[in-house]
Write a structure and sequence with these properties.
This protein is α+β, with helices and mostly antiparallel strands. It is built from 7 helices and 7 strands; from the N terminus they run ααααβαββαββαββ. It has a 5-stranded mixed β-sheet, covered by helices on one side. It has a two-stranded antiparallel sheet with strand order 1-3. A hairpin with a 2-residue loop joins strand 6 and strand 7. Helix 2 packs antiparallel against helix 7 and helix 4 runs antiparallel to helix 5. It is elongated and about 105 Å long. It starts with a helix and ends with a strand.
């Protein structure tokens, strides 16, 4: 039905366009060929009423043409916005599924060894999965909600590891601003996965999160074993950079430094 209507609309547009072009050409041909005039002043010898009707006709066509162009531009912008939203949602859904797979494998291996620890891991993991699935679909979350998610992740890591790690998470949130969900977790996950996980001792992860009405700053630092760490940028970081580009164009600063076994990442959002 819709396709039939579209075909009919296009047929009407073609007919109107054909008539609009053929009408002045027909008058000029009549003046030149039938009447034998050497020059033609359009509608010079025609009644005023006919001239007014023709002017009204072409004025209406001009207005309709402008409205049509505006509607097409509006449709194009809507399509671009929907495409952007779909791309952002797709990227958010890719944030950390591999982490959950790895954690499930670890929990499976611990079931017969330490039942109590396994229960705690499952509880923490369920909280993280709930946030990723339900809150991760939202356009924005509060800074407090994102901070609580990071804290749950840290608590889970503390239960996992059997070695001492200096983990600090400092928060200074003056205004509970709204941000895109799951923005910082890839940086936290990388600090553990590519940093302290490969260190036998003296591992540390230090995180600072500050927020006010104008900006949010997330900074994380960890040490790592340079011999066992790849310098190649992973999918997670590429994903994060693309999300920042789509949602915070010209409103974010993201920097990474890696020297002498110390990795530092800083992300600033301008609100």
């Amino acid at each position: 039905m819709i396709s039939i209507l579209k075909k009919r609309n296009w047929l009407a547009v073609k007919i109107i366009a054909l008539v609009s072009i053929a009408f002045p050409l027909g008058i000029m041909a009549y003046e030149f060929i039938i009447l034998g005039n050497e020059s033609v002043v359009f509608l010079e010898d025609y009644p005023i009423a006919i001239g007014i009707l023709i002017i009204i006709y072409y004025t209406i066509l001009l207005v309709l043409g402008i409205l049509w162009i505006l509607s097409q531009l509006s449709s194009l912008l809507t399509l671009r916005n929907e495409t952007k939203k779909n791309e952002i949602m797709h990227l958010q859904q890719q944030v950390n599924p591999h982490f959950f797979f790895n954690m499930l494998n670890n929990i499976y291996g611990m079931v017969d060894k330490d039942a109590e620890k396994t229960k705690k891991l499952i509880l923490k993991l369920s909280e993280l999965m709930r946030y990723s699935i339900y809150e991760g679909e939202r356009t924005t979350v509060t800074l407090d909600e994102e901070a609580a998610y990071i804290q749950n992740f840290i608590d889970l890591q503390k239960i996992r590891y059997h070695k001492p790690i200096d983990i600090q998470f400092k928060k200074a949130i003056k205004v509970n601003a709204s941000i895109m969900p799951l923005l910082f977790i890839i940086l936290v996950e990388n600090a553990f996965k590519h940093g302290v996980e490969n260190l036998t001792e003296h591992g540390y992860v230090h995180i600072n999160l500050t927020g006010n009405a104008q900006r949010v700053v997330f900074e994380i630092e960890n040490n790592f074993d340079a011999k066992n760490t790849s310098t190649k940028e992973g999918i997670g970081l590429k994903n994060l950079k693309l999300r920042l580009y789509l949602v915070y164009p010209k409103k974010h600063n993201f920097s990474i430094t890696s020297t002498n076994g110390i990795y530092n990442a800083k992300l600033e959002l301008l609100l």
